[in-house]
TrEMBL record:
Domain of life: Eukaryota
Family: Belongs to the globin family.
The protein's name: Hemoglobin subunit theta-1
InterPro entries given in the database record: Globin, Globin-like_sf, Globin/Proto, Hemoglobin_a-typ, Hemoglobin_oxygen_transport, Hemoglobin_pi
GO molecular function: haptoglobin binding; heme binding; iron ion binding; organic acid binding; oxygen binding; oxygen carrier activity; peroxidase activity
Ranges for domain Globin: 27-167
UniProt-listed GO biological process terms: hydrogen peroxide catabolic process
Coiled coil: none
UniProt keyword terms in alphabetical order: Heme, Iron, Metal-binding, Oxygen transport, Transport
GO cellular component, one term: hemoglobin complex
Source taxonomy: Eukaryota, Metazoa, Chordata, Craniata, Vertebrata
């Protein structure tokens, strides 16, 4: 089920760990979805390049997030960071294909991030912000206000699903 501004998954989320985020989650309209899909097609196999750049940015701009990645080599361009960026990219592509059942599609990842890694819900928003900024820098011509809103909604939607422990 998709979030409906302030109701649906947003309302349902208020009692869960992603609650504060849940109330801010807006549904993706058909137009939003089309814009995100178009950008994904344009990025092709480079999605992982940009997610890697977003990871590089989050640990530099928000150093408190480094603690989660302590086992990884966080130097820009490191093999580990690039490998991790590819995993994040693959997960986002899965999410884009499952907008109607995100909690199910991301349940294992949500479990990993909330129960095992205990990632602070705010960090998901920060990573979404870093990715949004990265994409705006690489695709300035595509980054209309409508694209900005569509990506923001998509990334907030994913963040909400990941930050909400299942079961
Ligand atoms: C858009 C949001 C995110 C997505 C799609 C995502 C996706 C993933 C994926 C696919 C994995 C690999 C899972 C596996 O190997 O089975 C992973 C692992 C991990 N994620 Fe995330 N993640 C997100 C946000 C975050 C945030 C915000 C943090 C912390 C600030 C974080 C920290 C980690 C860590 C520490 C690992 C384990 C890395 C390792 O030791 O290999 N993730 N994530």
């Amino acid at each position: 089920m998709r979030p409906r501004g302030g109701e649906g998954r947003g309302g349902e989320g208020r009692g869960r760990a992603g609650g504060a985020l849940g109330s801010a989650v807006m549904a993706l309209s058909a137009g939003d979805e089309a814009l995100v899909r178009a950008l994904w097609r344009k990025m092709g196999s480079n999605v992982g390049v940009y997610t890697t750049e977003a990871l590089e940015r989050i640990v530099l701009a928000f150093p408190s997030t480094r603690i989660y990645f302590a086992p990884l080599d966080l130097s820009p361009g490191s093999m580990q960071l690039r490998a991790h960026g590819k995993k994040v990219a693959a997960a986002l592509s899965v999410a884009l294909g499952h907008l109607d059942d995100l909690p199910d599609a991301l349940s294992a990842l949500s479990d990993l991030h909330t129960r095992q890694l205990r990632v602070d819900p705010t960090s998901f928003q920060l990573l979404g912000h870093c990715l949004l900024l990265t994409l705006a820098r690489h695709y300035p011509g595509d980054f209309s206000p409508a694209m900005h809103r569509a990506l923001h909604r998509f990334l907030t939607h994913v963040a909400w699903a990941l930050a909400s422990p299942c079961g």
